[in-house]
Amino acid sequence: MTTELFFLNKVKDFYFLNQNGVYEIRNPKKWLKNKTTENFGKTLDAEYCAKKVMIFLDKLLLEKKFNCVHDFSKTALGEICYNLQIIKDDHINNLSHSLCINLSTLIPYFHIHVLELKRNKTNFSKWSGIPTRNIMLEKKSYKSEIDSLKKILTVDLFLNEFPDFLVQKKIPEIYTNDIRKGEFTFYNAFFQREYDTR
Asked: For residue 64, how many other CB atoms are within 10 A of its CB?
């Protein structure tokens, strides 16, 4: 079974066509993992993992490289992803960088990416456009932080990294109230409605 087919089957486990002719999540039950090792015994879920990530992000703040940490998650409102971000403001170049950690509540997977946001030259608090992913920053400027986060998520918390090649991959047959047919992606299925979001 290919990786894409594996996740497509997962999508079919969660989404169904409702009476209004659009797809909805059939079973929003959150994942749980019971892990017992020599030094660890715990029932894991996305909420627990999110708390551990926030502790690490708070520690990064002490290094003075970043300006703030935000939890943009809306899981209490039914969203299916923890959206945790640590942000660096660059006032000289009128930019903000957000290191984004997304944790799915449907499956034990995570995705990490960096968003770059251009700021208004005369008023830094205002955006100039929308945030966009910057893969070069992920590979260079923030590689150390991303590697440390991946280690925590995979080794300490037993999560899996969501395949990057599926993030923008569309699932033609799936559509929802707010995502039209032909635009729904694997990322939408397991994480958020919008990829480039803060």
From this structure: 7
pTM of the predicted protein model: 0.91
Looking at the domain assignment, is residue 168 inside a domain? Answer: yes
> Which domain does 61 fall in, by range?
3-190
Q: How far apart are CA 68 and CA 162, in angstroms?
A: 26
Q: What is the count of structural domains for the chain?
A: 1
**120-166 tens-digit pLDDT:** 787 787 877 889 999 999 999 999 999 999 999 999 999 999 999 99
Is residue 100 one of the residues assigned to a domain?
yes
Q: Which of 21, 22, 19, 47 is nearest to 32 (CA)?
A: 47
Establish if 86 belongs to a structural domain: yes
Q: Determine contact, residues 91/110, Cβ cutoff 8 Å.
A: no
